[in-house]
Amino acid sequence: MQRWSSPKATKKLRERVRELTSKRQSGKDVKQIIAELTPVLRGWGNYFRTGNADREFNKMDSFVVKSLRRWQFRRGGQRLTKRHPFTSDQLHGMGLPRLQGTVRYPAQATPRRSSLSRMRENRTYGLKGGYMETGQR
What we know:
The protein is an all-alpha fold. 55% of the residues lie in helices and 0% in strands. The longest helix has 23 residues, at 54-76.
């Protein structure tokens, strides 16, 4: 099954990430920014995780890391030599969710119940204390 996010949905997520990492957010700590990004990324990732959206997820992961690095440079002012850019491992270690590797194909997305357990439930429904033998009371 070929399923991935539409260009419109991807564009809306990118706009939301840009909004959360804009110049207006420069007074906040990076952990606050990550805390605001987390529900947005998790929600989008959970919605589009069924199918084969792994290429889009990889692109979105790198876009979010680049946006946070841009935010870091905008926040720092003129002191270019004193700061080192965040690595993606550092950002993910601070709680940034990773979309890469979360894709589940439709059969894996929903847990399957075995028919054996349903049969067991149906057979014992309404009985108290074991199986009833036919012809005995």
